Amino acid sequence: MSDRTDEARESGGESPPADSEQLLRLERQLCFVLHATSRAFDTLYRPVLAELGLTYPQYLVMLAVWEHGERSVKELGQSLRLDSGTLSPLLKRLEKAGFVRRERSPDDERSVVVHPTEEGIALRERAGDIPRRILSATGLDEQQLGELHSALNSVTSALDRAAEEIDRQD
Amino acid sequence: MSDRTDEARESGGESPPADSEQLLRLERQLCFVLHATSRAFDTLYRPVLAELGLTYPQYLVMLAVWEHGERSVKELGQSLRLDSGTLSPLLKRLEKAGFVRRERSPDDERSVVVHPTEEGIALRERAGDIPRRILSATGLDEQQLGELHSALNSVTSALDRAAEEIDRQD
DNA sequence: CACGATTTGGTTGTGCACAACCGACTGTTA
DNA sequence: TAACAGTCGGTTGTGCACAACCAAATCGTG
């Protein structure tokens, strides 16, 4: 296996070098499978959550709200990695469905606090068996689950660092 | 950003018996991190692909078209797990951008075949270094990459089987 | 041939996601 | 006090994703 770095091979180069082909294939497969996994999760959750009247991102928001009692839009955005352009209409739909209420904080009128309604709290009970159903669908035991979780976590933080690096260059 | 507040708060060394709370936490974290990883990939690709005038799903389509020379809409939908409601407008945008052409197959007038234009083929050269840039950003070596790939793959097929099972019950 | 079922892609409607921009509020400084 | 920069949500525009529905082409059987 030659390990030479291929640069300065540009205009007129008809076929890319072989290891570049290999890298392209690897990257392609990782993209594909990550997208596919994300879509598969969504497909599995969709009918289950439809019984509760929630979409998958709405479910993620409810999980955060259930756990913390109340959350500002800013906090939700940070932990779920969503910006206000996504959260604002989503929260309005959740409010319209009767699961949460949104109120300006008295302390800081810029901030909007989201907390569950009675109905939203009651929903938690009905959602109680979802984790078990989903986890059993993955076919993973607790250890494999943990490994996948930490693998994805480390990839994510690596990607975050890389994105910040690119950001810094501008 | 990159606050990582409530993640990894309680991933201590011990593993207590997996009660319902524990399961909920695991499920929550797996959902979150998968979504987060998907989003992080998207964020990293976005500026890189913007130089080429592509979005991430458009890039996936171009990868498939580059590899096979030409693909029907049906084939694209199968390999990328997208339906026509997503692909049709996406392919129109790619055609408008001048990267592909769409033509009814002479053999079967129902089928639409997508193939790259000259400009689309030329784009492949300009996209040549993307895999290396992305892969180095992940901070994974070839073996870790393969492990993650196969882990995601097995999860995806387990989820597919589970979804089919649910489907069959209706 | 005619009839009906299937395949294939397209359209419409709803919702998620981000970038770019805006307006209101807050804390600091002059 | 007035001016200012920074924070926080919201709005608009573009694109992805799916469900539900539709039209044309094809295939199968009588």
UniProtKB/TrEMBL annotation, chains A, B:
Annotated InterPro entries:
HTH_MarR-typ (IPR000835), MarR/SlyA-like (IPR039422), Transc_reg_Sar_Rot_HTH (IPR055166), WH-like_DNA-bd_sf (IPR036388), WH_DNA-bd_sf (IPR036390)
Taxonomically, which superkingdom?
A: Bacteria
- Describe the location of the HTH marR-type domain by residue ranges: 27-157
Q: Which residue windows does the record flag with biased composition (Basic and acidic residues)?
A: 1-12
User: Cellular component terms, GO, for this chain's entry?
Assistant: cytoplasm
Quick check: keyword DNA-binding in the entry?
A: yes
Which Pfam family, just one, is annotated for this protein?
Staph_reg_Sar_Rot
According to the UniProt record, where is the region Disordered? 1-20
Q: What is this protein called?
A: DNA-binding transcriptional regulator, MarR family
The UniProt keyword set, sorted, is: Cytoplasm, DNA-binding, Transcription, Transcription regulation
Q: What is its main location?
A: cytoplasm
What SUPFAM superfamilies does UniProt report for this protein, alphabetically?
A: Winged helix' DNA-binding domain
